[in-house]
Design goal:
flat, about 30% helix, alpha+beta, single chain, about 210 residues
Length: about 210
């Protein structure tokens, strides 16, 4: 009979329509997901190791830069004037413990005709010193700062060099004890110059510290 077939056909129409709409939508979603995956792939193990290596290298470079600064690398200040950072901690018997010294030594050079560039003046700036046993404040007198009269030069490195020294003083560990006094000596600070100007200064970073 005609009537049952018509009813059955009408009953299946919404389902077919839904399938016709859903299937293309699923294909479209799958295509978009594949495209996004191709554009930004998830990092694999090699990528993670590479990123870690780059971070480690950056930290190593930062550590190297800080190490150079702490080691007392000289810094050009202006025309033939350089700054040598002084930064050390030493154990001294006369201090009954350690002494900590921070300062900037400013060295000025001058150009002498037919001779070259020679060291000229010294100045100690921003001095801070402490004897840790008793937290005693230390001082450095400007009149005690001077060039060394003679500097032994390593023939392998060559080039002109200069040395300098200064005296640091402070109170004794306790009342009635002899005041603290010690020498600080920086030897063989080598430099290079060209056209009347200092182009490089390799500062000594191993000071000799001796009780007086």
């Amino acid at each position: 009979m005609t009537t049952p077939r018509l009813i059955k056909s009408i009953g299946r129409s919404p389902l077919r329509l839904a399938l016709l709409l859903i299937i293309p939508l699923l294909f479209a979603c799958f295509a978009i997901a594949q495209s996004a995956h191709a554009f930004s792939p998830e990092p694999n193990e090699c990528d993670l190791i590479g990123n870690m290596a780059e971070e480690d290298d950056a930290v190593a470079k930062l550590g190297t830069a800080r190490g150079k600064a702490a080691a007392g690398q000289s810094i050009p200040k202006e025309h033939n004037k350089w700054v040598i950072p002084i930064d050390f901690t030493k154990q001294l018997q006369c201090a009954s413990g350690s002494v900590i010294v921070h300062a900037n030594l400013v060295v000025t050079f001058k150009n002498v005709p037919d001779v070259g560039v020679v060291r000229h003046e010294l100045k100690l700036e921003g001095f801070r010193g402490t004897a840790t046993n008793g937290s005693r404040k230390l001082e450095a007198n400007a009149k005690d700062l001077k060039f060394l009269p003679y500097v032994k030069v390593d023939s392998k490195n060559g080039g002109p060099a200069f040395g300098f020294m200064f005296i640091v003083t402070g109170p004794g560990f306790q009342q009635g004890v002899t005041p603290l006094s010690f020498n600080v000596i920086y030897n063989a600070n080598r430099y290079k110059f060209r056209d009347g100007k200092v182009t490089h200064l390799n500062a000594d970073n191993t000071p000799v510290v001796r009780c007086r």
